Amino acid sequence: MLTGSKGFSKLDLSHAYAQLNVDKESQEYLTINTHKGLYSYTKLPYGVKSTPKIFQSKMDQILQGIEKCVCKQDDILIGGNDWRENLKILGESKCEFLKPEVVYLGLKINEKGLHPVEEKVDAVRKAPVPSNVSELRSFLGMVQYYHSFLPNLATTLAPLHKLLKKDVQWKSTSECQKAYDVCKQSLTSDTLLVHYDLNRKLRLSCDASSYGLDAVLSHVMDDGQERPIAYASRTLSQTEKNYAQIERCHIKVGSESAIYQVSAIDDDFPITAKDIGKATKVDSVLCKVYYYVMSGWPENCQDENLRPYHNRKLELSCEQDCVLWGSRVVIPPVCREKMHAQ
């Protein structure tokens, strides 16, 4: 998303959740009892379990199709090569414009890639050696925040994780001290993760130790060198630790569905996304649906043709000029006969 960007702008939304209205059907479930009687929230409140997911979904829908723009909750990050690409109509308050680097979600981001923030790195470096379980959990929490930057993390932290097990007496060993030192030495403000680039080759490398599974996803650069995009790891279960080394190599690091999805891609389609996008733009109904998905739906829909889409407005999105219902493409009527013929 941010590949090729040299200037970055960061937006922090004010009272983010309160900017979303709650429909009347949902307001009755958000009723609170006060000394002045019963009141219902008309804005999306904090504290409701589904609020972050609803807000993130809405932000993704609003920002859909904007290049070099990423959003996580109330923080929006915009990349670009110059001010024309960055600046539209943006308020100055709580924003940073055209910086060579910005701090976003605890990460320092510039044209080279992602770095840990110096202050957080210092907090890990200066953290005292834990003397009890509570202090150890706090230390591990700081380290896990930057797990994507640390190779072989599950294996490195294995001696420390042993101290968290039930019925294990606290005893800091030389192995524990080594784990502390490796974490502090590995995490520096110079640590770099490159931006993901759709046009570069990927290489996934995995390894298994007697304690955990480790993986690194890298880009193969023009000079043949590998530059890490992210590291991942997990600790082996007690059963998995009993496997022979050759069997551990077959344990999955994460979800295998992504591999199936990649292997299922085919390029022999009767119609392309470009064809569907063109047909969507000239279709009398879908062109309006596309407009409303991108710009926002009216509260009430009088058009009978649009009502089915209005009822599912939170499930619709747009990509490559096509309208999507969840993960499914809405096929314009003019293209359906050709699709069914295949």
TrEMBL record:
Domain of life: Eukaryota
Family annotation (InterPro entries): DNA/RNA_pol_sf (IPR043502), Retrovirus_Pol_polyprotein (IPR050951), Rev_trsase/Diguanyl_cyclase (IPR043128), RT_dom (IPR000477), RT_RNaseH_2 (IPR041577)
UniProt signal peptide: none
A GO term, aspect molecular function: catalytic activity
Alphabetized SUPFAM superfamilies for the sequence: DNA/RNA polymerases
PANTHER family, per database record: PROTEIN CBG26694 (PTHR37984), RIBONUCLEASE H (PTHR37984:SF13)
Listed name of the protein: Uncharacterized protein
Organism, scientific name: Paramuricea clavata (Red gorgonian)
